[in-house]
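Quick one, tokens below. Sequence please?
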């Protein structure tokens, strides 16, 4: 593990690596959060049913979740410097393909490629942080990553709505494809998997078999499955609103046009980095990660309960609830820190990729779930969906309450 007293050159290089990770994560966030703004005009031009909207939006997340286990193995085996550009090229292809799409199948394939292309960005950042920065700064760095990367999400709200009004929905994806190519090339030049004096653990895997045994070791950690229960709802509820269903809900329920919907979503995205910067320091101040997460999720389920049970809520109240959900969902940085602290460096990629797999799967499930419920009950589908989310949050809290914060003991056997 790197110490607090690092040479100035190492600190400078670590900062450059952080910037590259933040921009790459931000480009991924643009795609993840763009659904609520870009899917309605795509649906009108191409013709996509309401349940199809949910499938297309969720495809990105399911594709990313599908490869999280092999991504974790590859990161621990080959390192982020090789993995990021090798997989990132798929995101470029997907971005260009969606800009040229003419039917639902092409949109679906494009979203899948984008999900695969950005599937390694967050985990790569976590692996690099574990080797380039002191462990006490992990939660803070994760919060900074979320805050900086959320600029991409912000651009996917009101700014994207404005670009669509002026240039149509295809042009932004061509621009993002170009930006992704530039960042991949910079990453190849700048990123190094570890600082010069870093000593790799003897447990670093050298074969696929050792990588698999490492996963088994991660999954055998006491109460890890309890932590994963919270991971399932760590992103899904907020991203279902910001990334897909917030826009249609505001249009169907309150009659807001594209620009007005974009402003509400823009306000939500503004509070994402604020939430990340708020929760990051709490990890070091209170040193009780479970209490922080438990409190945050309790207030979140109350917000969803009000959305589901409240009658004739004003647009002001709904906006405030949406903004709070976007803010409080950033407790994920504390949950990720709890996961990171439980495992030694050589297992960080596989541990956090497992957590990320569950989190991304939760996003895909939530986005699809809204579409399924709306297809069954168009009139009250949104309210039923909000209440369904509240119920899932209650179950997750009960399971997570038995999670452990104890670190795994180092072992000499290869993993």
């Amino acid at each position: 593990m790197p110490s607090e007293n690092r040479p100035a050159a190492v600190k400078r290089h670590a900062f450059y690596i952080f910037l590259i990770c933040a921009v790459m994560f931000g480009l991924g966030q643009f795609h993840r959060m763009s659904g609520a703004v870009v899917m309605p005009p795509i649906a009108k031009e191409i013709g996509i049913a309401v349940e199809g909207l949910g499938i297309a939006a969720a495809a990105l997340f399911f594709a990313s979740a599908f490869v999280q286990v092999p991504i974790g193995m590859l990161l621990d085996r080959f390192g982020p410097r090789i993995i990021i550009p090798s997989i990132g090229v798929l995101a470029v292809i997907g971005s260009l393909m969606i800009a040229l799409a003419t039917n639902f199948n092409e949109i679906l394939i494009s979203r899948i490629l984008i999900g695969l292309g950005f599937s390694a960005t967050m985990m790569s950042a976590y692996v690099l942080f574990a080797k380039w920065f002191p462990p006490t700064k992990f939660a803070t760095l994760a919060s900074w990553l979320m805050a900086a990367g959320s600029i991409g999400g912000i651009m996917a709200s009101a700014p994207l709505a404005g670009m669509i009004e002026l240039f149509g929905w295809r042009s932004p994806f061509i621009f993002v494809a170009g930006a992704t190519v530039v960042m991949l090339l910079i990453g190849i030049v700048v990123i190094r998997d570890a600082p010069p004096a870093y000593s790799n653990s003897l447990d670093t895997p050298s074969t696929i078999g050792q990588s698999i045994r490492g996963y088994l070791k991660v999954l055998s950690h006491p109460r890890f499955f309890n932590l994963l229960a919270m991971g399932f709802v760590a992103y899904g509820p907020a991203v279902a609103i910001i990334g897909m269903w917030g826009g249609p809900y505001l249009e169907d329920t309150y009659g807001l046009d594209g620009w007005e919907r974009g402003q509400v979503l823009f306000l939500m995205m503004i509070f994402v980095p604020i939430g990340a910067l708020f929760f990051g320091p709490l990890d070091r101040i209170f040193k009780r990660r479970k209490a922080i997460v438990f409190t945050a999720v309790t207030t979140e389920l109350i917000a969803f309960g009000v959305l589901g049970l409240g009658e004739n809520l004003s647009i002001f109240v709904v906006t405030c609830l949406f903004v709070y959900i976007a803010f409080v969902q950033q407790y994920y940085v504390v949950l990720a820190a709890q996961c990171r602290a439980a495992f030694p460096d050589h297992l960080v990629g596989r541990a956090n990729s497992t957590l990320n797999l569950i989190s991304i799967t939760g996003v895909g499930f939530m986005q699809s779930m809204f579409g399924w419920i709306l297809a069954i009950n168009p009139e009250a589908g949104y309210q039923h969906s909000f209440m369904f989310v509240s119920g899932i949050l209650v179950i997750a809290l009960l399971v997570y309450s038995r999670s452990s914060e104890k670190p795994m003991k180092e072992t000499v056997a290869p993993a």
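DSSP finds 19 helices and no strands in the chain. The chain has one domain: 8-400.
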